[in-house]
Description:
The chain is of the alpha+beta class. It has one domain (24-100). The chain is 38% helix and 24% strand. The protein has four helices and four strands, in the order αβααββαβ. It has helices spanning 14-18, 33-47, 51-59, 84-93, and strands at residues 25-32, 66-72, 77-81, 97-100. The chain has a four-stranded mixed beta sheet with strand order 3-2-1-4. The longest helix is centred in the middle third of the chain and has 15 residues, at 33-47. The radius of gyration is 17 Å and the shape is globular. It starts with 13 loop residues before the first helix and ends with a strand.
Amino acid sequence: MTHLGDKKPDKISAEAFASLGAPEIVYIREISVEDLHDELAEDIATSGMNEEVFEEQFVAIEPGTTLYALHAANGVRMAVVDSREAAYVAARQYELTPVSVH
């Protein structure tokens, strides 16, 4: 077995990872409603979308809620659902292979 010592492995770009020949693989990761809000708020601010409508959608979600995001191999978020099981079902409906990321 090769020992890398303190050397960190080379990073691979999202595009290179996506082109490794496994486009049917999607990964599932937990995301808090607060983190999702912050990520989307940045997009909303630059898109010109109505911020009041955006905020109304998040009022309906209880603070501290854990959601599950499905991501393509290139990192693009494809969906956000309310349970890990729903994430797996959504992936399988589109003949994708879900894997968990911690």
